[in-house]
Amino acid sequence: MTTTPRQVHLAAHFPGVNNTTVWNDPLQRSQIDFAAFEHFARTAERGRFDYLFLAEGLRLREHKGLIHDLDVVGRPNTLAVLAALAAVTRHIGLVGTLSATFNEPYELARQLATLDHLSNGRAGWNVVTSSDAFHGANFRRGGFLDHGDRYTRASEFVSLAKELWDSWSPDAVVADRASGRFLAEEAVTPFSHRGPQFDVDGRFNVPRSPQGYPVIVQAGDSADGRDFAAEHAEVIFSRHSVFDEAQQFYRDVKGRLAGRGRTEDSLKILPAVTFALGDTDDEAAERARADALAQVGPKTAITVLEQVWGVDLSDRDPDGPLPEFDPDPEASITKGWAPRFPNAVKVAQAWRAQSEAEGLSIRELVITVAGRQSFIGTPSGVAAEIDRYVQERATDGFVIVGTTSPHGLDEFVERVIPELQERGVYRSEYEEGATLRRTLGLPEPTEVAEEVRRVG
Amino acid sequence: MTRRTTIAVALDGAGWHPAAWRDPSARPAELFSPDYWIDLARTAERAGVDLLTIEDALGLQSSAFGTTDDRTDEVRGRLDALLIASLIAPTTSRIGLVPTVTTTHTEPFHVATGLQTLDFASRGRAGWRVQVSGAAHEARHFGRRTFAPLDLEAVRRGDSALLRELFDEARDVVEVVRRLWDGWEDDAIIRDAATARFVDRDKLHYADFEGAQFSVKGPSITPRSPQGQPLVTALAHQTIPYELAATSADLVFVTPHDDGQASSILGEVRAAESRVGREGRPLSVLADIVVLLEATPSLATAALERLDAEHGAPATSDALIFAGTPEALVERIDAWTDLGYDGVRLRPARLTRDLEQVAEWVLPAFDRADAPGTTLRERLGFERPANRYTVEETAA
């Protein structure tokens, strides 16, 4: 008996404002002109990706008290660029990161509902929280949110947003000229919400959108984050791309679903990965090496080291050994990055041990621990590896991150996608008129509500 | 030499008459679909309309000023105007796109980057209609501030404390947004391989704004956009908003109902400019007119009466309601531009019919061939402004 193999789901990550993006590559063009986004979106759609993904900027990063100048910087407003991309694409999902801390539910809910209308049902929302005063300095709320309250706020935010989205019945707009009735009777239910984060009431002003509400994406990794995901998320943008870790994470998170009346298919897990391709494995390895050297230049190597040690290390030789002293766990000289190295002393000791054991300089060590490409190989080899992850339930697919804007995805689409299609694990065409939720193979929100009711 | 008359068109729902959605030309079931907005924008662009405005608000429409109603016989529900404009941007190439964005409950930082992004997506055709929200029910949607119900008499007299507070805040929002727009000098991105620097941090500038309602550090996450400063506009009916426009805007929409008012309002706008000490280019002033156009005056009157009957009462508006022939409208526009107006913003009573009438019969009366440049600022005769921070350095 043959069974249909599990299908691979792919998202395309617009190259970010970090050292993964190689701005001095000859292929690198503007990261901000609309033409870059248009090219990227069309390429991803040509590659039949489930969705394209845009991160959000809330403040320019600072290092040692100055705006960080080594990486690509400067990006658009997430919602506005996604709405513009809705006009130049037909099928691909449009997903953006939007903060639950520095937005208000009424406004963000109506912007996301608008995006879903304008894209005919292709909107998605990566829900993130931040609590620090550094980002807060650009917003009315400032930085008061307690770190531990991040998911409390996110959860209350999403629940409230769903209440707003559900407050218009699907057939509210009658628009019947003859009877003079524009809205059906009782079509808009007033909302009233009183919680620790929000105390609001009134009536929502956007009719229910094609998907009901955008696909909810989430990236947090803590226990709270995983619980939030089990409650609300339909896609997890995961950081676990190494096979064993990925499989473990997949089991853990999917295992939490049943308790909430959700099926395995109602949540997709997609880790972010980079790639380096070649005609042979050796050629791919050479390219991966060249990319890593470009991503981790001497100054960047020192910057990464300073982020862990928390002190100025600019007098160190990047080709020399790591500092012999331990970091001051209280010191921090970097602002605006997601915390990458939560336990600095432990990280530093591990790095020093590895550098001594393998004879690695500062730069080589940073390349090894932070600069490696995820998939390195021939197009068919990379496709086989992607397929293996999905068939063996380590992931449902991947978020592909290119190293240049906007052409970083071209080669993947031209060379790896056909291999995946050949293996029978990836779509050759979109389903006409499908919403993002349908493209992802996720149940409709009403079905989810039904599921929960049956269990409850 | 005659000045080029600016023709703007204001989009809102199915049109500006409350019964517009029942007109045979209307597409009331499509008001929330992308094609509806793209079609309207393309029609306006083909005709040579200079710019489109798009209405917005942070609450449901209402027939009662400043509060809610329960009517089900008028259009209710609307999409976010900045996002509609963003959608339209790649599907058009010449027309200016001026969404309404509220200053009261929104984040100035997001407002700034949203409009910059619209400017990138439209390759230099973004504008902003600044709007305050004083409605108590809209404040309840956010739950951060409590507004007493609007004192309509005080609003009419122009001495409402709430109105003053909201417009002071709007002035602060425009100020911080303009600082954020200039936060990156045009040549901040250097891609200097020799020093491994992508950006010259000396050409990035903090906004460092602290006001009564909010503070913003900056700089913007978005580099300076094609126009540098997208065009800032405001609709104004009395002294406080005239002064906001004179302080903060490039262009103001006003609502004269006859020639006498057209003169006096223009005088008030110019007086407001001198009171606030406006420097540089004077405000462009456009007169708003709700337009319903038919081939003869009697057909136009009949069409308006039909809509009014469906609505159950004669429609009212803050602006003049003009029901007549295209020729008579052109005469009216010419008369007001002779008074010193830069042009008009036409609010079609019925979308799509009156937009089509405007496109077919009104625009051809004005010379459209001479629109200079490709940006909205260029089209309206504004310079691309120097970056305030660059200027400071040169002067130092």
TrEMBL record, chain A:
Positions binding FMN in this chain are: T97, H147, Y151, S222
Which of UniProt's keywords are assigned here?
Answer: Flavoprotein, FMN, Monooxygenase, Oxidoreductase
Keyword RNA-binding part of the UniProt annotation: no
Q: Oxidoreductase among the record's keywords?
A: yes
One GO MF term: monooxygenase activity
Gene3D superfamilies reported in the protein's UniProt record: Luciferase-like domain
Q: Which residues form the Luciferase-like domain?
A: 29-391
Q: Which family does it belong to?
A: Belongs to the NtaA/SnaA/DszA monooxygenase family.
Name of the featured protein: FMN-dependent oxidoreductase, nitrilotriacetate monooxygenase family
Record organism: Agromyces cerinus subsp. cerinus
TrEMBL record, chain B:
Q: Which residues bind FMN?
A: D56, T100
Q: Where are the transmembrane segments?
A: none
Q: Establish whether keyword Protein biosynthesis is in the entry.
A: no
GO MF term list: monooxygenase activity; oxidoreductase activity, acting on paired donors, with incorporation or reduction of molecular oxygen
Give the keywords, sorted.
Flavoprotein, FMN, Monooxygenase, Oxidoreductase
- Domain (Luciferase-like): give its ranges: 26-305
Looking up InterPro entries in the UniProt record yields: Diverse_substr_monoxygenases, Luciferase-like_dom, Luciferase-like_sf, NTA_MOA
The yes or no answer to whether the keyword Flavoprotein is present is yes
What the entry lists under Pfam families is as follows: Bac_luciferase
SUPFAM superfamilies xrefs: Bacterial luciferase-like (SSF51679)
Its family remark reads: Belongs to the NtaA/SnaA/DszA monooxygenase family.
**What is the protein name stated in its UniProt record?**
Flavin-dependent oxidoreductase, luciferase family (Includes alkanesulfonate monooxygenase SsuD and methylene tetrahydromethanopterin reductase)
The organism named in the record is Agromyces cerinus subsp. cerinus
